[in-house]
Amino acid sequence: MQGVFETGNWETKTIQEVTKVINGYAFASKDFKSTNTIKSIKITNVGVKKFVESVDNYLPEKFKDTLKEVQVKDGNIVIALTRTIISGGLKVAVVPESYDGALVNQRVAALVPNEKIINQRYLYNFLTTDGVAKYVLAHVNTLMQPNLSIHDLKNLAVPCPSLQEQQSIVKKLDALNAETAKLETIYQQKIHDLEEFKKSVLQKAFAGELKTK
To answer: Which residue range or ranges hold the Type I restriction modification DNA specificity domain (predicted)?
Structure first.
């Protein structure tokens, strides 16, 4: 997929030029209670291309009005700033509808795309490429664990073709992802069928029913 974003003809802009970057707020541990009503997004919610929903990250209602600057909407992009990259890839995900209005906790950054410049799905796909992973690896502090600074995130360069071309790229990637998912389903079914066949053979073998000739 990296090749889709590589061209010498496109203008590049930094993340901070094409999005509003939200740096998470340092809520106190005592603020989180299961009886509260406002959802928050912690590092544990941000997986590799997957948003992990949880049931214990609730904050008091009062923060909804006092901390609007760290509030996100569904469709925004979130990135873990601590252990940003793991063996499976970059920890980046899309905020689901169920977390619309959630507040971002510390060590998580949220990106709100400027829709006049960048397509949200185009940007998300770009952030999942090997090129971005290499950028992160080159900039993280690995003395303790791979941490990405908000400064380095803001300065990540993004190739910016026209919105029309971005939409065309997204359409092609969607088709590719759909085909990949289809092939994975077929593969998993074949694995399942093979396992069932092996079980049948073993059962017959130990029941003395397996023909050897």
So the answer is: 9-186
